[in-house]
C-alpha cells in the first residue's frame, strides 16, 4: 500500500510539471487561438540557453535572466515573422507552422549551445524527505516536492493574473473575439507580445526544473510532448483543466507503468515496460470519445 | 508555344472528364513513365537506385497516403509512420506464417491490415477535429510502435523487434538487384498513384473534399460523415501500409519498430505540406524535395564550411537540416500554402499564355 | 387562435387556386416544435405546414429563430419536443444526410460552398444522394463508376444551363464574387433534384439586379420543376411578391401565418416589425 502511495505521490508531483508546460500552451491558445506545438521545443531551448550561459562562466541567476530575455525575443520573433503572416489562415495551418517552428528551434538550440547532455544545478537535493520516511515509510523526493511547489505557485500566480488584472481581462477579450477586442481599443500586438513572453517564462521555469532533474537533453522535448494529452484531457482553453489534467496524467501514467506490466506479463509473457510512453495519449484518446471538449473546455455549437 | 490547348475541342463530357484532359499533359506523362520504366534502368547507378530512387518512390507513396487523409479529407494525422510500421510487420508475418503466399498478396493484405488499424484510430475523428485529432493520432504513433517492440510474436521473437524482410520472388523471378526492386516499386507506385488520382476526381474524392471544406454543409447535402471519414482513414492507411511494406522489403531489408518513429511521421507530413496539400502530384514533388534536401545540404554545407574555415561537424549539419526543414515549412505555409504543386500549376498557366502576360 | 389560423389557411388555398398554380397536399408538417440550447429557448411550440408545390416564406426579426427552424427541418438541430412529418413519415431526431436522402436540399445564410473545389465539382457533390457506386468502382477510372459519373455530369450541366453559369464551370468557387457564389449554392441544392428546397436568405447582401435574377430563378424552379420551396428572406417586397404563404416568427414563437396580404395586416406582425411604440 505505501508503495502505491509513493507511486501516486511521485506521479502527482511530475504531473504538476506537465501542468506547467500545458499552461504555456493554454496561455497562447487562449489569447491567439494558436495551438503552439513548439511549446515543448521552447522548454528545451530555455533550459539549453541557461546551461549554455552557465557554461560560459555566467552566474546562474544572471544566466536565467538572460535566458528569459532570449525566450522573449524568440516569442516576439515568432509572433512577428510567422504567426502574424498567417492571420486568417485556418487554425490547422497555424498548427502546422508551429510544427515547423518546433523543428527550427530544435535545430537552433543545439546549434548555439552544443548538444551534449548537461546538468543544471539549482541547489535542491534529490533525496527522500526524512520526516515522511520516518513517519510513514514513504519515499518522496525533496526535489520533486520543491519543484512542484514552484510549479504550483506559478500556476496560481498565472491564474490570478488571468482572472484579476487588467491585462488578464484584455487577454480574455482578445481570446473571445479579435475584432471586437481591437474595436474597443485593446492593443492586440502588445497583448500577443505579453502572452508570448509569459509563455516563454513558463517554458523557462519548466525547462529549469526538468533539466535539473534529468539533465538538459533532447529527450526533454518528448517529455514536454506529454503536455498534449494533458490539454486534451483538460480542454485547450482552461487553466484549471491544464492543472487537473496534468495531475491525472502524471498519476495515472506512473500507476499504469507499475501495475500494468505484471498483468500483461501474466497474460502474454515477455517484458512490457515503457507503458509510460503511450499511456497518456491512449488515455486522452479514450477520454475524447466520451467528452470531446475536455474536462473544463467549452462546448461549442456549430452554427449554420 | 508548345503548351497550348487551343484547338483541342471537347465534344463530349467523357473527353472533358479524362484523367489528363490536356493532350500535352498526356504526352508528357506517357514520356515520363516510359523514361522511368525503360530509360532510367539503362544508366542509373546502384547508388541512385538504392539511395534515391527507391526511397523517393516509397516516400511518395506514404506521402500520398497521408495526403488522402490530410489533404483531401482534412484530417490531420501525426501517426503516418506507425501505419507504415503496421504494413511492414504485417507483410513480414504473412510471408512468415502463410505457406507459399505470393509476395504481392502479402503486400495487399499488409495494406488491408494497416487500413483496419487506421480505421480503429480514425474512430475518434467522428467526434473531434483539428488539433484534438492530431493528438489522438499521436496515440497511434506511440502505441503501435510500443506494441511492435514488446510483443515478440510479431517479430518472430527477434530481439528488440528487428525483422529482416524475406526475399522477393514473383513467378519464379527473384527481385534481388536494386534495378529489379526499383522496377517493382515503380510498378506498384504508378498503379496506386493512378488509382488515387481516379479516386480524387470521383464521388469519393468529392465527398472527402466536401468534408474537408465544410463538414456541416457536406452532411446537409447528403454525405454521411462517419462513412466518409472512415473511408479516408482506411484508404490512407492502406497506402501507408503498402509503403511500409515496400520500405522494409525493397528499401531497407531489415527494420525495427523504432525506425518508424515520430520523426518519420513528421518528415512525411512535411512532404505533404511542401509538395502540396490535396494533390497527387504534390506528394511526389514533396517526397523528392524532402529526400534530396539533406543530400544537397550534406554536399554543399561541409565543403563550403571547410573552404571558409568554419568549425562544422556532421552534427552541425544535422542541426542546420532541422532549422532548414522548420524554416521551409513556415515559409511555404506563409508564402504558398498549396506547395510546389501549386507553383507547378502556376508555371503551366503562364506557359499556356506565353509569350503574352495575360 | 386556432380558429383564425384555419380561416387564414383557407384564404391561402383560395388565393393559390385563383392564381392557377398547382398546389397540392401537405408534404411537410411541423407540430409543436420546441428547441433549446442549454437554457436558451430558440423555438417554442411552433406548428405549421408546407404544401406540395408552394413557396412558403418564413419571416421575422433577427434572432426570431428562422434559421433554427430550417435546421430543424433538415436535421441539423434536433428539437426537444414536437413532431415532424415529411411525406407521411414521422421523424424526430434525424441525421442531416438522411434528410438529404429523403429529398430535402438547402442553401445557407452564410454561403457554405466547398471553397477548394470548382463550381462543377460543387454541383457534382450535390448529386451525392443519387450516386451509388463506391470506392472500388471509383478507383478504376473506367467501367460502371465512370459511366455513372458521366451520366450525372449530364444532369449537372442542365442545372448549369438553367442558372446560366456555364462560363464559370471550372472556376474554384472561392474566387467567385458573392452574388455568383449564392447562385452556385442554389445550383448545388438543385443538382440534388430535391422535392423540398430550403433557402436561407438567398438574396441577402445582393444588389437589385442580382435580387431580380435570384427571384426569377426561384420562381422558375418552383414553376418548371415543381419544387416546393421554404425560404427565409428579409426583403419584404420580395417575400410578398413571390411567396404563397408566410409564417412569421418572433422570439422563437409563431405570431402569424397566412397569405401575404393577411400577414401584412396582422397587428401582431406589425408590432413585431415596427416595435410596440408605433
Automatic annotation (TrEMBL), chain A:
Similarity comment text for this entry: Belongs to the binding-protein-dependent transport system permease family. LivHM subfamily.
Membrane topology is:
Multi-pass membrane protein
Q: Which UniProt keywords apply?
A: Amino-acid transport, Cell membrane, Membrane, Transmembrane, Transmembrane helix, Transport
User: What's the short name of a Pfam family annotated to this entry?
Assistant: BPD_transp_2
UniProt KW Membrane keyword: yes
Which species does the entry assign this protein to? Niveibacterium microcysteis
Protein name in the entry: Branched-chain amino acid ABC transporter permease
**Transmembrane residues, as ranges?**
6-27, 34-54, 60-82, 94-113, 145-162, 191-210, 230-251, 272-290
Q: Does the keyword field hold Cytoplasm?
A: no
Q: Where in the cell is it found?
A: Cell membrane
Amino acid at each position: 500500500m505505501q508503495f502505491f502511495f509513493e507511486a501516486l505521490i511521485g506521479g502527482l508531483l511530475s504531473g504538476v510539471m506537465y501542468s506547467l508546460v500545458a499552461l504555456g500552451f493554454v496561455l497562447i491558445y487562449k489569447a491567439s487561438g494558436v495551438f503552439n506545438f513548439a511549446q515543448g521545443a521552447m522548454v528545451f531551448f530555455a533550459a539549453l540557453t541557461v546551461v549554455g550561459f552557465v557554461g560560459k562562466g555566467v552566474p546562474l541567476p544572471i544566466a536565467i535572466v538572460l535566458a528569459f530575455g532570449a525566450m522573449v525575443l524568440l516569442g516576439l520573433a515568432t509572433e512577428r515573422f510567422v504567426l502574424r503572416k498567417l492571420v486568417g489562415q485556418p487554425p490547422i495551418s497555424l498548427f502546422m507552422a508551429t510544427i515547423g517552428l518546433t523543428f527550427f528551434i530544435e535545430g537552433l538550440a543545439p546549434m548555439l549551445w552544443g548538444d551534449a547532455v548537461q546538468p543544471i544545478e539549482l541547489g535542491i537535493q534529490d533525496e527522500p524527505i526524512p520526516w515522511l520516511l520516518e513517519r510513514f515509510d514513504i519515499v518522496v523526493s525533496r526535489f520533486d516536492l520543491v519543484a512542484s511547489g514552484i510549479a504550483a505557485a506559478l500556476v496560481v500566480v498565472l491564474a490570478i493574473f488571468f482572472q484579476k488584472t487588467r491585462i488578464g481581462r484584455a487577454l480574455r477579450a482578445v481570446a473571445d473575439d479579435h475584432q471586437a477586442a481591437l474595436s474597443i481599443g485593446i492593443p492586440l500586438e502588445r497583448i500577443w507580445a505579453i502572452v508570448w513572453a509569459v509563455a516563454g517564462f513558463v517554458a523557462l521555469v519548466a525547462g529549469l526544473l526538468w533539466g535539473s532533474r534529468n539533465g538538459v537533453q533532447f529527450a526533454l522535448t518528448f517529455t514536454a510532448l506529454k503536455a498534449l494529452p494533458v490539454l486534451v484531457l483538460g480542454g485547450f482553453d482552461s487553466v484549471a483543466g491544464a492543472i487537473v489534467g496534468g495531475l491525472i496524467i502524471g498519476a495515472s501514467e506512473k500507476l499504469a507503468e507499475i501495475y500494468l506490466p505484471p498483468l500483461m506479463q501474466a497474460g502474454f509473457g515477455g517484458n512490457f515496460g515503457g507503458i509510460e510512453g503511450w499511456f497518456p495519449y491512449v488515455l486522452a484518446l479514450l477520454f475524447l470519445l466520451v467528452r470531446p471538449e475536455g474536462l473544463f473546455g467549452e462546448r461549442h455549437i456549430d452554427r449554420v | 508555344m508548345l503548351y497550348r490547348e487551343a484547338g483541342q475541342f471537347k465534344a463530349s463530357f467523357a473527353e472533358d472528364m479524362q484523367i489528363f484532359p490536356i493532350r500535352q499533359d498526356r504526352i508528357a506523362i506517357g514520356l515520363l513513365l516510359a523514361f522511368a520504366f525503360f530509360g532510367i534502368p539503362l544508366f542509373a547507378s546502384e547508388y541512385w537506385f538504392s539511395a534515391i530512387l527507391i526511397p523517393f518512390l516509397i516516400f511518395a507513396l506514404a506521402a500520398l497516403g497521408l495526403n488522402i487523409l490530410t489533404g483531401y479529407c482534412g484530417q490531420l494525422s501525426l501517426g503516418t509512420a506507425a501505419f507504415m510500421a503496421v504494413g511492414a510487420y504485417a507483410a513480414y508475418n504473412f510471408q512468415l506464417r502463410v505457406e507459399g503466399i505470393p509476395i504481392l498478396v502479402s503486400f495487399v493484405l499488409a495494406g488491408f491490415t494497416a487500413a483496419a488499424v487506421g480505421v480503429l484510430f480514425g474512430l475518434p475523428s467522428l467526434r473531434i477535429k483539428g488539433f484534438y485529432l492530431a493528438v489522438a493520432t499521436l496515440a497511434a504513433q506511440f502505441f503501435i510502435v510500443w506494441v511492435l517492440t514488446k510483443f515478440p510474436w510479431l517479430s518472430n521473437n527477434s530481439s528488440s523487434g528487428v525483422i529482416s524482410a524475406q526475399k522477393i520472388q514473383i513467378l519464379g523471378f527473384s527481385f534481388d538487384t536494386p534495378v529489379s526492386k526499383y522496377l517493382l516499386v515503380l510498378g506498384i507506385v504508378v498503379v496506386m498513384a493512378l488509382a488515387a488520382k481516379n479516386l480524387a476526381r470521383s464521388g469519393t474524392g468529392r465527398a472527402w473534399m466536401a468534408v474537408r471544406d465544410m463538414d456541416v454543409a457536406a452532411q446537409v447535402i447528403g454525405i454521411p460523415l462517419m462513412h466518409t471519414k472512415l473511408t479516408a482513414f482506411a484508404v490512407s492507411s492502406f497506402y501507408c501500409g503498402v509503403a511500409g511494406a515496400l520500405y522494409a522489403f525493397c528499401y531497407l531489408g531489415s527494420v525495427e519498430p523504432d525506425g518508424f518513429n515520430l520523426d518519420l511521421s513528421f518528415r512525411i507530413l512535411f512532404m505533404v505540406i511542401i509538395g502540396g496539400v490535396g494533390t497527387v502530384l504534390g506528394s511526389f514533388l514533396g517526397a523528392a524535395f524532402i529526400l534530396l534536401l539533406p543530400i544537397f545540404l550534406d554536399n554543399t554545407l561541409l565543403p563550403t564550411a571547410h573552404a571558409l574555415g568554419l568549425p562544422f561537424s556532421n552534427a552541425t549539419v544535422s542541426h542546420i537540416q532541422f532549422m532548414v526543414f522548420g524554416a521551409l515549412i513556415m515559409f511555404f505555409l506563409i508564402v504558398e500554402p498549396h506547395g510546389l504543386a501549386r507553383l507547378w500549376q502556376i508555371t503551366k498557366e503562364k506557359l499556356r499564355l506565353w509569350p503574352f502576360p495575360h | 387562435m386556432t380558429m383564425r389560423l384555419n380561416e387564414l389557411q383557407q384564404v391561402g388555398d383560395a388565393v393559390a387556386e385563383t392564381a392557377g398554380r398547382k398546389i397540392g397536399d401537405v408534404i411537410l408538417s411541423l407540430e409543436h416544435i420546441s428547441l433549446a440550447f442549454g437554457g436558451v429557448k430558440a423555438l417554442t411550440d411552433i406548428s405549421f405546414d408546407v404544401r406540395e408545390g408552394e413557396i412558403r416564406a418564413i419571416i421575422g426579426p433577427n434572432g426570431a429563430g428562422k434559421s433554427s427552424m430550417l435546421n430543424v427541418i433538415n436535421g441539423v438541430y434536433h428539437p426537444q419536443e414536437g413532431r415532424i412529418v415529411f411525406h407521411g413519415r414521422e421523424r424526430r431526431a434525424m441525421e442531416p444526410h438522411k434528410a438529404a436522402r429523403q429529398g430535402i436540399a438547402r442553401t445557407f445564410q452564410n454561403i457554405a460552398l466547398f471553397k477548394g473545389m470548382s463550381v462543377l465539382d460543387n454541383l457534382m457533390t450535390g448529386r451525392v444522394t443519387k450516386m451509388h457506386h463506391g470506392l472500388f468502382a471509383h478507383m478504376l477510372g473506367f467501367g460502371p463508376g465512370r459511366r455513372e459519373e458521366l451520366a450525372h455530369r449530364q444532369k449537372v450541366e442542365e442545372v448549369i444551363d438553367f442558372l446560366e453559369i456555364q462560363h464559370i464551370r471550372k472556376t474554384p468557387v472561392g474566387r467567385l464574387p458573392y452574388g455568383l457564389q449564392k447562385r452556385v449554392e442554389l445550383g448545388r441544392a438543385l443538382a440534388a433534384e430535391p422535392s423540398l428546397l430550403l433557402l436561407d436568405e438567398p438574396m441577402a447582401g445582393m444588389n437589385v439586379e442580382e435580387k431580380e435574377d435570384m427571384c426569377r430563378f426561384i420562381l422558375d424552379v418552383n414553376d418548371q420543376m415543381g419544387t416546393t420551396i421554404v425560404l427565409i428572406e428579409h426583403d419584404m417586397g420580395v417575400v410578398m411578391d413571390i411567396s404563397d404563404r408566410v409564417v412569421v416568427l418572433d422570439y422563437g414563437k409563431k405570431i402569424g401565418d397566412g397569405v401575404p396580404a393577411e400577414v401584412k395586416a396582422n397587428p401582431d406582425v406589425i408590432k413585431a416589425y415596427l416595435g410596440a411604440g408605433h
